[in-house]
Amino acid sequence: MKRSRRQFLKVASLSVLGLSTHLATGGIVNAAEQGAQYLPNENGLKAGRWAMVIDTRAFETPEDFDVCVKACHKAHNVPNIPNNQNIKWLWTDTYEHVFPEQGNNHMSESLENRDFFVLCNHCENPPCVRVCPTKATYKKPDGIVAMDYHRCIGCRFCMAGCPYGARSFNFSDPRKHLDMGEVNPEFPTRMLGVVEKCNFCVERLAQGLMPACVEAAEGKIVFGDLNDPESEVRKVLAENFTIRRKPNVGTQPGVYYII
Q: Are 158 and 138 in contact (CB under 8 A)?
């Protein structure tokens, strides 16, 4: 009982400290403050606000999705845990679950039967950043909501704060479910008790590379600078009808869906 009380007081104290700091900074942290782990090199891609547009009409077969998921999970050493504690960075779900506020009783069969990618939305107003007591989750100036796994204490406040269910918690050691001979040495593996999620391939952008899923999608996913009117992502948004997830919660997601 005493141990539980100490643990509670520890988390509560960290929460107050973390929330106070976040309120003061708006939750935006420079990469330099996070150990310069994502500082771009001379070839790094830069943007005022990174955003993604997914053309859901172009994903016609399970293979279209699988190639993107595998590229993402291989790049980030995401384990495949064969139970309900699996770790997800990029996965699929139905229209009813992805867009619960935008359905109706007379939808077209093509929409009802279509799968949709689900991932972290890298919100303009990310609740996960505001509730993180240790600044393990932080928002970069380019809009990416990133994580410092070393700071994560596993409190899961971020999971409770995310309205999209975009985060996974490592209930077991994820390394036991990885082929260590196939691990990508350029991206860290995680450990028991740590939360993780999609990071918009911030480490690849810093090297001048597009996100792994974007490369694998071969044009079905567009990624670029939302603040640049000449960017491809802005042109695609101007030419197509798009929706975002749960617009009523006011988070302003950075992921758009062409329907």
A: no
- For the segment 24-53, the average pLDDT, to the nearest whole number, is 66
Tokens encoding 216: 């694998």
Helices (H) and strands (E) in the chain, counts: 9, 10
CA dist list (Å): 90 to 14, 16, 198, 213, 230 = 30, 32, 7, 9, 28
What is the rounded CA–CA span in Å between residue 145 and residue 169?
17
pLDDT bucket at 105, cuts 50 / 70 / 90 = confident
Sign of CA dihedral 44, 47, 48, 53: negative
Stretch 131-143: mean pLDDT = 97
The encoded tokens of residue 224 equal: 């670029």
More confident residue, 91 or 33: 91
Residue type for position 216: A
Q: Which amino acid is at 121?
A: N
Residue with tokens 């890298």: 122
Task: Report pLDDT for 72.
Answer: 98
Q: Residues 195, 154: contact at Cβ < 8 Å?
A: yes
| Tokens, residue 100 | 């619960």
Place of tokens 């390394």: 175
Q: What is the DSSP string of 27-74?
A: TB--GGGGTTTT---TT----SSEEEEEEGGG--SHHHHHHHHHHHHH
DSSP 139-191: E-TTS-EEE-TTT--S--HHHHH-TT---EE-SS-GGGGS-TTS--TTS----
Token pair for 238: 């101007």
For the beta carbon of residue 204, count every other beta carbon within 10 angstroms: 21
3-state class (DSSP) for residue 55: strand
Question: What would the two tokens of residue 44 be?
Answer: 């790094």
